[in-house]
Design a protein that fits this description.
Elements (H helix, E strand, L loop, with lengths): L16 H13 L11 E2 L5 E5 L7 H4 L7 H12 L3 E2 L11 E2 L2 E5 L12 H16 L6 E5 L1 H10 L14 E3 L5 E5 L4 H5 L5 H15 L4
Parallel strand pairs: 2-5, 2-6, 6-8
Antiparallel strand pairs: 1-5, 3-4, 7-8
Bound molecules: iron/sulfur cluster.
Length: about 220
């Protein structure tokens, strides 16, 4: 069994039978792709932790790095570069040398789910890894949740009621005396193309996180 204290699952994590079956199918179909649980990426001591939903088929599940290879990364990484949370060039592959500064990225669910929809049981099963990610660093101050599932999983990690902290784009939630949860719509292609979220609105959320870390707000 995986070590529940590790923030990264083993490459053959067996805990979600449906996702393991899908992973095996993907491995046989795309043998050169990553097709494993995706590890978190970035500064292990970063004060900002960004939590997405799950690896995308053409993104992290293919390249092995969160938000790399699909549309969402084209929104996320330029915003991180713009506000000083990344250094280098984002070239949409895991070997581009991009470094995150004071920031880490992970997902609520570490394996590719069919149709990008993990079940409640799979989200629960993967939560100990998210909890370990959150608990890894004493310096963590801000968690940026991309979407409702990430928001709710972070709250459950801390035993907070969902009713007391509804998901609201742009809202802060006090997790404890050191930690603030910030909500954003996911920077997915769907949300951008349907205009639920614009690139400018997403950039202002990243700027907002930056201002919290600078104690300006
Ligand atoms: S989603 Fe998480 S808990 Fe489930 S098999 Fe993958 S790594 Fe393991």
């Amino acid at each position: 069994m995986p070590n529940p204290l590790s923030s990264n699952p083993p490459h053959d994590c067996p805990l979600c039978p449906r996702l393991v079956e899908f992973r095996n199918y993907q491995q046989s179909r795309y043998p050169n792709a990553h097709n494993q649980p995706v590890a978190e990426f970035g500064d292990p001591d970063g004060r900002l932790l960004i939590v997405g939903l799950a690896p995308g088929q053409r993104g992290a599940n293919s390249t092995g790095r969160p938000f790399t290879g699909d549309y969402a990364g084209k929104v996320l990484y330029p915003a991180l570069l713009k506000f000083g949370f990344a250094r280098g060039v984002f070239a949409e592959n895991a070997d581009d040398g991009l470094e995150l500064i004071d920031c880490r990225i992970t997902n609520a669910v570490r394996c590719l789910p069919p149709q990008n929809r993990p079940t409640a049981a799979e989200i629960n099963q993967c939560r100990p890894f998210l909890k370990a990610s959150i608990g890894t660093s004493d310096r963590l101050r801000v968690i940026l949740a991309l979407g409702r599932i990430a928001h709710e999983s972070v709250l459950r990690c801390h035993g907070h009621s969902l009713a007391g902290h509804p998901f609201v784009h742009g809202q802060n939630h006090v997790i404890d005396d050191k930690l603030t949860l910030v909500d954003s719509y996911h920077c997915s292609q769907y949300n951008i193309f349907t205009r639920r979220l614009s690139v400018e609105q997403f950039e202002s959320i990243v700027s907002h996180c930056n201002l919290i870390l600078k104690n300006i707000i």
